[in-house]
């Protein structure tokens, strides 16, 4: 699929399995989620532009590098918060915004209740963090908000994606790359990813 990047290596496969297991406790779930998020951040990092400058080591001058653009992380509340710390470990000077969306369980459409991001999104790389790309409604709504605030260079990072959500993103925001650890089979009749891993927010925070 165009613009879909599946981060596929033995460590990620192992940790996605931990996330899928119904018996995984919140502490172990958070640890596995953190490691998968690291892997996603590293893969996204391969695409970021650098600026070259001169640095002085204890012995001589040499070339050094820094990121060309400011990175803005935007977790979708609340589950997206679980991915932030791993991305900040890799991009410590990133800024963090927040989008609050909740799903109407009848219509499966997102309802917004909070939005706050840094200024100058047009000069930044904006990475939306949301563990599950299910129907695609939340991701599409989030990018609609971000683009209204002039975000132009956008990326989506998620743990698990469903084909329905990927297709929804392609139809609404075809230029946005989607980085995920797994592309699952389909959605259930109530909009959950199959085989999936359940509700990522509930399993992260222990709110079953």
Written description of the protein model:
- This protein is α/β, with parallel strands linked by helices.
- The protein has one domain (4-205): Rossmann fold, CATH 3.40.50.2020.
- It contains six helices and 13 strands.
- Strands 1, 4, 5, 6, 7, 8, 9, 10 and 11 form a nine-stranded mixed β-sheet that branches. A two-stranded antiparallel ribbon has the order 2-3. The protein has a two-stranded antiparallel ribbon with strand order 12-13.
- α4 (137-148) links the parallel β9 and β10.
What is the strand and helix layout of this fold?
Layout: E1 4-6, H1 10-20, H2 26-45, E2 50-56, E3 61-67, E4 70-77, H3 81-90, E5 95-96, E6 98-103, E7 110-116, E8 124-129, E9 132-133, H4 137-148, E10 153-161, H5 163-172, E11 178-183, E12 186-187, E13 193-194, H6 200-205
Parallel strand pairs: 1-11, 4-5, 4-6, 4-8, 8-10, 9-10, 10-11
Antiparallel strand pairs: 2-3, 6-7, 12-13
In short:
This protein is an alpha/beta fold and 208 residues long.
Q: What does the radius of gyration come to?
A: 17 Å
Which parts are unreliable, with pLDDT below 50 for 5 consecutive residues or more? none
Give the structural class.
alpha/beta
User: Helical element count?
Assistant: 6
Global morphology: globular
Mean pLDDT: 92
Largest sheet data:
9 strands, mixed
Q: Look up the CATH topology.
A: Rossmann fold
Give the number of DSSP strands.
Answer: 13
The CA-CA distance between the termini, in Å, is 34 Å
> Domains counted in the coordinates: how many?
1
The CATH architecture classification is 3-Layer(aba) Sandwich
Order of helices and strands: EHHEEEHEEEEEHEHEEEH
- Broad CATH class: Alpha Beta
Helix content: 25-40%
Strand content: 25-35%
